[in-house]
């Protein structure tokens, strides 16, 4: 992890399936209560790695308030139907990594997927969709920051 980073709190909606009240993510200060997200927000929706966010301070902790600028990344969550280290899940993950995606393990069954700006979002989605249709995993889109075809 980079040296000049801090944790910021991103509140989750009540009764969130993660079971938590907030997700804590690493972010690099940019000034005037703004930060650049430096890891994958696995549970929160609407945010991706590289997004610039505005915070407010509560009890000496920066708390997410709004998005200032998008970083061009997209975020997915993989829910492995077995263990995330099973051969089938690992094959899907390795395929995604070759397609300009980076993984961040959240639990034994949940993996955050950072889809880098240079990735083909449609090809990434197809890999995830195919894996879901064959019963290897389930996935959710946390945020799509890639430009879409019209």
CATH topology category name of the largest domain: Alpha-Beta Plaits
Termini, distance in Å?
Answer: 38 Å
Low-pLDDT residue intervals, each spanning 5 or more residues = none
CATH class of the largest domain: Alpha Beta
- What Rg do the Cα atoms give? 16 Å
Roughly what is the average pLDDT, rounded to an integer? 92
* Structural class label: alpha+beta
Number of strands: 9
Number of H- or I-type helical stretches? 2
What is the count of structural domains?
A: 2
CATH architecture of the largest domain: 2-Layer Sandwich
Q: What is the H-and-E element order?
A: EEEEEEHEEHE
Major sheet size, sense and barrel closure: 5 strands, antiparallel
Tell me the quaternary state: single chain
Adjacency order of strands in the biggest sheet: 1-2-3-4-5
Q: What global shape is seen?
A: globular
